[in-house]
Amino acid sequence: MEQRDYEQLADRLKRRGFIPHIAASKEEAKAQILDIAGNGSVGFGGSSGIHSLGIYETLKEQGNDVFWHWKDEDKAAARRKAFDADVYLCTANALTMAGEIVEIDGTGNRVGAMIFGPEKIIVVAAENKLAADVESGIAQIKKNVCSGNARRLKMKTPCAATGSCGNCISGDSMCRVTVVFSQPTRNAKEFHVILLQEALGL
Questions:
Q1: CA–CA separation, 117 vs 108, rounded Å?
Q2: Ranges 19-23, 91-95, 154-158: which has the least confidence
Q3: What was the pLDDT predicted at 170?
Q4: What are the Cα distances from residue 191, in Å, to 39, 108, 119, 171?
Q5: What are the tens digits of pLDDT across the range 166-179?
Q6: Which of 103, 114, 121, 117 is CA-nearest to residue 177?
Q7: How many Cβ atoms sit within 10 Å of the Cβ of residue 169?
């Protein structure tokens, strides 16, 4: 996308009640996240993209309380603490050109926190997560994100084996909850969306 397209998308997000930011690089996105988070406690949703930015380590070094089930031995406790943090940080599974955020979750901690958790939310929406509309966004998530995570976690799902969604109903299913944020919920006092002009994560 060209810069003017990102500006148009930022305008659409703003009209929906989100607080948009445009980041030209991963380094700029990281700086924006650290600035928005400030001194607050930060909960993390599972994200290989966020992991690659090294934000967890930087926040710990500067003294923030951080809660991430990828890093803590007691994963259930970390998920609950993340839900009660000052800030919740995750990535968008997909972002439509109309400014809607699409998320698919298996455990529900990520979408639960985004819906009724911390009052300040930061979502990174990378270039590879952009989609024309909700329907194509869901298809894109199931093809790329769900299948990639299923393989990473060694889940026994059709998508892990073939890379294509089999609409499975099983104990290992990655696609249990689908949520579309057309606006922030009333619980969210600040819902920041960082539009990253680079690919990030699956």
A1: 12
A2: 154-158
A3: 87
A4: 17, 19, 8, 32
A5: 889 989 898 999 99
A6: 103
A7: 8
Residue 3 has pLDDT above 80, yes or no: no
> How close are the terminal C-alpha atoms of the chain, in Å?
18
Q: Say yes or no to pLDDT of 158 above 80.
A: yes
DSSP string, 80-137: HHHHTSSEEEEE-SEEETTS-EEEEESSSHHHHHHHHS-SEEEEEEEGGGEESSHHHH
* Residue 192 near residue 36, CB atoms below 8 Å: yes
Cα separation, 153 vs 172, whole angstroms: 10
Asked if residue 86 is part of any domain, the answer here is yes
Q: Are 95 and 130 in contact (CB under 8 A)?
A: yes
CA count, 13 A, side-chain hemisphere, 159: 27
The whole-angstrom separation of Cα 202 and Cα 56 is: 19
CA dihedral 41, 192, 115, 135 (to 10 degrees): -140
* Domain housing 12: 3-134+181-196
Look at residues 123, 102, 148 and name the one whose alpha carbon lies nearest to residue 37. Answer: 123
Number of domains composing the chain: 1
Residue 170: inside a domain, yes or no?
no
